[in-house]
Hints:
Blueprint: H1 13-22, H2 30-49, H3 81-84, H4 89-99, E1 106-110, E2 113-118, H5 121-129, H6 140-144, H7 158-171, H8 174-179, H9 181-202, E3 205-206, H10 207-224, H11 236-253, H12 273-298, H13 309-315, H14 324-355, H15 357-370, H16 378-381, H17 385-397, E4 408-409, E5 414-415, E6 421-422, E7 427-430, H18 432-436, H19 484-501, E8 502-506, E9 516-518, E10 522-524, E11 529-534
Parallel strand pairs: 2-7
Antiparallel strand pairs: 1-2, 3-11, 4-7, 5-6, 8-11, 9-10
Helix pairs in contact: 9-10, 9-19, 10-14, 11-12, 12-14, 14-17, 14-19
Protoporphyrin IX containing FE (HEM) is lined by residues 128, 151-152, 164, 219, 333-334, 337-338, 341-342, 345, 400-401, 404-406, 473-477, 479-483, 486-487.
Amino acid sequence: MDKLGISGKDSSWWVFTLPAFFETRNLYDEWFLFSLLPVFVSVGFLTWVFTPGGFAWKHGRNQKGPASITGPRGLPFFGSLFSLSHGLAHRTLASMSSTLGATQLMAFSLGSTPVVVSSDPQTAREILTSPHFADRPLKHSAKMLMFGRAIGFAPNGTYWRLLRRIASSHLFAPKRILAHETSRQLDCTAMLRSITEEQSAHGSVLLRKHLQAASLNNITGSVFGKRYDVGQDDNQELQELREMVKEGFELLGSFNWSDYLPWLSFFYDPFRINQRCAALVPRVRRFVHEIIEDHRLRGCDKLSDNADFVDVLLSLDGEEKLQEDDMVAILWEMIFRGTDTTALLTEWVMAELVLNREVQAKLQEELDLIVGDKGVTDADVVNLPYLQSVLKETLRIHPPGPLLSWARLSTSDVQLSNGMLIPASTMAMVNMWAITHDPEIWKDPLVFIPERFMEKNGGENVDVRGNDLRIAPFGAGRRVCPGKNLGLVMVSLWVAKLVQHFEWVVDPDNPVDLSEVLKLSCEMKNPLSVVAIPRNLVSCPSPF
Ligand code: HEM
């Protein structure tokens, strides 16, 4: 019929013929419509009852391959929104997948959005490395905050590939990471000093704010080429930056119902996301624009190894030249991605070291033996296998993005090796937390044992950068985290220095609480408060 060109010309013909069967003059008759209502409700109900995965999987979407994808039905229209909009989604999903025997892949609905989640290394690898999963769904807040043009959310295509190339050959190139070591050391020294001051003034230290200050400064240094005196609370520019970053984190991290129920946005916006995004964007634009203008005025003929990211973007020419709004989005995204993850990961490491004093002692022993009296450098880290194992074990037990932070979106049907077929336009998540806590994969998964990564103790030196999906906290495939090396270098240096300079002991008034809260990253619900006792400073170098 299509070929004859008559299809759809009058698709409402049935409206006028159907009444004949029901002896009604017109289908638009209100009584007739009213009597049809129970029929529609029943059909809807039956569709829901017989659709594993819920409404978004109707019409057999989850049965397109030789093996079907099972999952919870959730509620009609809402799917699993109520179960996942609060609490710890990674734990809820892990328990659902295991109860339903759907760890390889589970289908569920978030409103009208069909979603799959993998809690298994093999299916996770196939999803993350598939070229048909190289897009991401764009949250409403991310779109409003201009992230659609930044690396993390730009759709797979020429523009995104260009950004990835610039990122890998400039900002995250090994020589640039190396060139920024001096500033990393400076930030670390400032952090050790402020910790010492707080410890002497209060008898304990709230570690997170020191880590966040150091990471913000470190990232603004690499991205904007600008450092702030973090002790100066009256610095207006720093205050403005902190406020904007905090607001952005809240907006991006909050669960927005209208992402999954678009009609809701017209009358329900409890967090005032639209209004707040609209207010934040011009502030961000103004702030970053001034920094770009400063760089333009200063000029930069030749890029040095430690050039900042603004200089790099300004130096692009020809087809690579970027619009100012694109630059704002890219630069702003780097500030977001780089600050939170590294500070929160370090806080988890330190919490585990306080709880596991024997691990802390072993780490100090390694540092004393290999580094001795001098200050730790990036180059030392390769010679500190126990430090690396402590980091890996923390990434295993507390992955900063337990659901790998940002989901993926299929751009066409994807057939998996287990026979399941994920249809196009499906959102896919990987539950890295479930994989790293799976007793079939990890012995005693709830226990903190860095030795499991030490070859000389019979452990396995597993790579965490995306090659081994049993532990891939930075994701994998084309959209793997481009900042993974920078992140690891920062956290390794901080932990080494913190442990070299202080003995970390439980604060008796605030025992360590490993409860989690899932925001943009998974963080400690109650920030870590600890007692930092300076180690024997005779054998330890002065940090100042
Ligand atoms: C401990 C530190 C970090 C962790 C655990 C982490 C984790 C992640 C994860 C899980 C993803 C998604 C990967 C995927 O979909 O396969 C990601 C993406 C990303 N990360 Fe990181 N990250 C960290 C540090 C950083 C840093 C320091 C930066 C930059 C300054 C950064 C920039 C990005 C960007 C731009 C993306 C998006 C990549 C894309 O979509 O093409 N990350 N990160």
